[in-house]
Amino acid sequence: MRIFLTGATGFIGTAISAQLIAAGHEVVGLTRSQQGAEVLAAAGIEPFYGDIADVDSLRRGAMDSDGVIHTAFNHDFSAFIANCEMDRQAIIAMAEALSDTQRPLLITSGVGLGSSGAGIIAVENHFNYQHVNPRKASELAGIEAAEMGVNVSVIRLSQVHTPQKQGLITPLIELARQKGVSAYIDEGLNRWSAVHLSDAARLYVLALNANIPGSRYHAVAEEGITMRTIAETIGHVINVPMVSLNASDAGEHFGWLSKFVAQDMSASGAQTQQQLAWRPEGPDLISDLEKISR
Fold it and tell me: Taking the alpha carbons of 117, 77, 105, 285 in that order, is the dihedral positive or negative?
């Protein structure tokens, strides 16, 4: 299949493209720059010039493909709501190009949207329309796409990690370096789920090959690691003390991260593993955190 991949030069997209090529697919990667095009070409990927903010380019890329995997997202969290709306528009644009075909559209979301309430573990067959996370716009766009006759599925990501990068934990590490302490809120019992990059990339390819319209999958290898454990590991590795903060002090200390640090983002991947015979094999989160540079 000829797969149009957004985010092709990114952390997750790079790993997905390697898995797609290994599986015999042809990959067309979205890029904004000549430098990005050169990186893609060197990896055996056909560059396609465009941008997630340029919906016409997304329509063209999707139109000239046998399927789309959408992983691109603007991670400037100072404009998070606007970026979630941008993602909604991007999904709708690509859906318009795929409408009334059986060509698959795999979109990306977060596992928290599968939780029915605070502290309740997220599951694949639930979508919380009332969730406070603006990223729900992506899944709402997916629902709209399905109503347009598009063969759409959702991959919900947990904290995707390697020793070099660990989702939202990466800025937590940088904050701990800046502040000189590794902090958590109250008792730090809220949990974050996690998955190794290699396992997440493999899941996208399995979902593409399964081609089951309307599916939701969780890229989850570990259902939940407490924030206290994460903070303790960060503190140990970069040699700063661990501290507990009151919720009222979270905003001042964590800044934009305060929206996430207090959330429970535990999630199950049991249904995904059963449906796709997906078995995570990569290292666990703490093992990767223990390898970060001091």
Answer: negative
Tokens 């290292």 belong to 283
Tens digits of residue pLDDT in 42-88: 999 999 999 999 999 999 999 999 999 999 999 888 899 999 999 99
237 SS3 class: helix
pLDDT at 106 over 80: yes
Q: List Cβ neighbours of 19 (8 Å cut-off, separation of 6 or more).
A: 201, 202, 204, 205
Count, in order, helices (H) and strands (E) of the chain.
Answer: 12, 12
Reduced to 3 states (helix: H, G, I; strand: E, B; else coil), residue 154 is: strand
Report the alpha-carbon distance of residue 12 to residue 198 in Å, rounded: 9
Average pLDDT of span 232-244: 97
State which amino acid sits at residue 228.
Answer: R
Phi, psi of 163 (to 5 degrees): -65, -20
Average pLDDT over residues 4-30: 97
At 242, the amino acid letter reads M
Angle at 99 between CA 96 and CA 102, to 5 degrees: 140
d(CA 94, CA 10): 19
Q: CB neighbours (10 Å) of residue 114?
A: 27
How many Cβ atoms from other residues are within 10 Å of residue 224's Cβ? Answer: 21
Distance CA 79, CA 288 (A): 29
Model confidence pLDDT, tens digit, residues 249-258: 999 999 999 9
Amino acid of residue 171: P
Sign, CA dihedral 292-119-132-91, equals positive
Can you tell me the distance from the alpha carbon of 268 to that of 219, in angstroms, rounded to the nearest whole number? 9
What angle, rounded to 10 degrees, do the helices at 55-63 and 80-98 form?
A: 40
Residue whose structure tokens are 């430098």: 35
